[in-house]
Amino acid sequence: MRPTTRDLAKAAGVSLATVDRVLNGRAGVRKKTVDAVNDAIRRIGFERNQVAATLARQRGYRFGFALPRSGGEFMEEILDRIREFDKAGRAEMVEARVIHLDDQNPHRAARTLSRLSAEDLDGLAIMAPETPQIRDAIQRMRERGIQTVPFVSNQQEDGFVGIDNRAAGATAGRLMGRFLGSVQGAIVALTETTQSRDSLERRLGFDSVINHEYPGLRILPTLETHGDPGRTELVLRNVLAAHDDIVGLYLMGAEAHTPIDIARHLQATENRVTIAHERTPSTEAALRQGDIAAVIHQDPGHLVRSAVRILRAKCENRAILASQERIRIEILIAENL
Q: What pTM, to 2 d.p., does this model score?
């Protein structure tokens, strides 16, 4: 017979009610008591019956995804996967919904997060800029009993859901160097904003490979588009005019639709190697047409499912199975779409 909650209470020297509060992450329990219960869990090998625990709650889990209000094709892929999970998860008493944040105004985004309570949500996966306002709002949410996990764009915490962006950038650098071979020249690096941690990490990884192993290549300063088509065309046109030895384009951001269209219009991809991120209708079409050479991708379905599993594990005070939650870096070329 596996240990019961009654056995756990006896081993920890606390009441059944206290065990219930600790297992469900409720407030009002001293840290010393929580540590005693967790130590007893490890000591007696207690494993919780999650189906019974969910039924005992008399309600399912409600999880949210805080995502930027603005977004392109990759964001639509994520939204589709959230809707897909929400439909399938009802059978297991798990709901998933989207909360839109103003990603251009951290104060507004923080106010949106501050309105959420534990009555609204059990946990929240958050894709937002790393600003003091957002960090403070997340801390206050945790104090209110809402579990959180960084989603796609932040690697500063344990349990981050997304690829290792430095490794993704290094992968792009390796592909760029291999595709160019002995060709020498300049590489244009383009992204929506350098305030995004994923772009910063990708650039660091890209630089680490190109600068150390391909001395014939040099990477120009990162160009920011702010997602604006007019600005994208202006910065691309200017850099092409200023440098006559450009041999590669690295599109670091998650949304490559606008840069690809404008680069095609300016004939910037002709006879140059272009690497982009995220599989979307635009990057698929560009791969098939030969406008880009490869796409570095992370599966949006895996991202969504992993975020829910991590949030649920936090709610149930369970360990996270790290090997299951590791998001793979996928390399796509025209031939393996």
A: 0.80
